[in-house]
Amino acid sequence: MIHNEEAGGVRTYQPDYTDFGISRDRYRQLLYYCRQYREWMAEASSLLGVGAQQYSVMPHGSEVGDPVARAVMRREQLVAKCAKVERVADCVDGGRWRAALIQNICMGKALHFIDPAILPTSNRNDYYKARREFFILLNRELD
Length: 143
Prior knowledge:
Strand order of the largest sheet: 1-2
Strand content: 5-15%
Mean pLDDT: 84
Largest sheet: 2 strands, antiparallel
Distance between the termini: 24 Å
Low-confidence stretches: 1-7
Radius of gyration: 20 Å
Structural class: mainly alpha
Order of helices and strands: EEHHHHH
Shape: globular
Helix content: 40-55%
């Protein structure tokens, strides 16, 4: 575990996963991959209302193709990314930590602000063990 106090006395937590083959930069890459979860969900839901294009006899730009099909393909990609993160969260301790991991890692909610009703236990060590397992599994999944 690395503590960084360079940012004006604010202590930032930086876990050390080098024993598990995850460098500091790779950890941040995995974390920021997950932080896009909310954006993916929002974009995927916004693509549900894409309608067909009205064609006219006037020439148009070089973009040829069906906008509905493009929207469907993009939505499938976004939903697949979200499903991948959720699948990894489900693999951690039989899915007991799924909601807490998604809220903490993907949504950026601090552990002490997560509703205790969704936590299987109040033991912080158990949570951080589950979080570590999540990143190890996600690293394997994305390789």
